[in-house]
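Fold sample X.
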Amino acid sequence: MGGVGWAGAFGTMPTPLLLFVSVLAFFHASEAALVLVLDRASYGPSSWLFSRPYGAAMALALVEYAAEYAVLGPRWKGWSAATVAGLVLVVAGEVVRKAGILTAGKAFTHAISTQRREGHRLVDTGIYGVVRHPGYLGWLVWSVGTQVLLANPVCTPVFALWSWRFFRDRIAYEERVLVSFFGKSYRDYCAKVPTYIPFIP
């Protein structure tokens, strides 16, 4: 059953697609704005969190959405329970991530610090008392939520697996660095506070 396109992608966008674009715009603008507010000296192009692999992944998401919309139409790719569920995941992910950034303040950086800076302390209060890596957990939930929002059955598990593998490796590396900074204090913290990311204790 073929669906009608949305005026060659230049007409009125379907609600999920409009939400997707809005979600991406808010995420990247808010990340850059928080760097400006919390640590202006580290602000730069990377503060917007764009990369080629990320751009390719989001482009793939749009290709899937457009292809399925062309075949299935708005009944399956328009506003639905998936849109609502995806939006809930996106908001939850943003809340967890931004709470982590605001709690850590200047201790939060987009790039992993390999040298301990003056005043660098172990943050274990606020959301860090509940979730060990709220920035990573929040981003994982957010990224999967963007695909649920679009009702993308291919990209949803792909994004989940890709995000999980990325954070598995990043967390392992970052925690070795943090142990070198804080020693037993960080080991004790890890033993008490989980990541809540599956298979990453």
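Fold sample Y, listed below.
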Amino acid sequence: MLPSMKTKSPSKTLRFDEEKHQYWLGEKRIPGVSEILQKVGLTKNYDGVDPFFRDRGRATHKAIELHLQGILDPSSLDLAVTPHFEAFLKYWDKRKEDLTALECPMADPLLEFCGTPDLVTDRAIYDWKCSKSHDKVADLQGQAYKILALKKLSDLDRPFLVVELHEDGTFEEFNYGTQYAEWASVLSLYRWRISRR
């Protein structure tokens, strides 16, 4: 069974505004992992990216989510999504893992940040990418997700795996292990940056 989207504190419900990509814990807006990484200058602003690539990525993520829930109609896939989804199927085909959280927003109320891992299983935390332009800052993204998963789900250390799903139907996996020590420095830099506005 997948976890609910509530935090342990019954008075503070976690809400995620998908359109604005903003998180709220109770009445307080909490920054997300991507927002933090962008604010400290570790990732670029994707606002100017061709909407085709953004929409293709979102559609591929949705197809994977529906497939893992067992409710995807494969005939509904757009031709732009199909090769990336087929790459996912090749990657996932032989895996026997229990799904723990699927596109589930999570929060760390103490450290005050949120994020939505693509998939958490009993063995790993997964992030799907629809490109070959792999950015190693994904390591820091994964560190944040590891902390969120530890807080939300259990004390089980899971490695963070980035899986590139290529346009030619192939895939490549990048394993960032279980460490998460550097994320504290990213949060400190973020707090310093927003305090200097």
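Sample Y note: The first helix runs from residue 33 to 39.
Also: Helices lie at 33-39, 51-69, 82-92, 138-152, 183-195.
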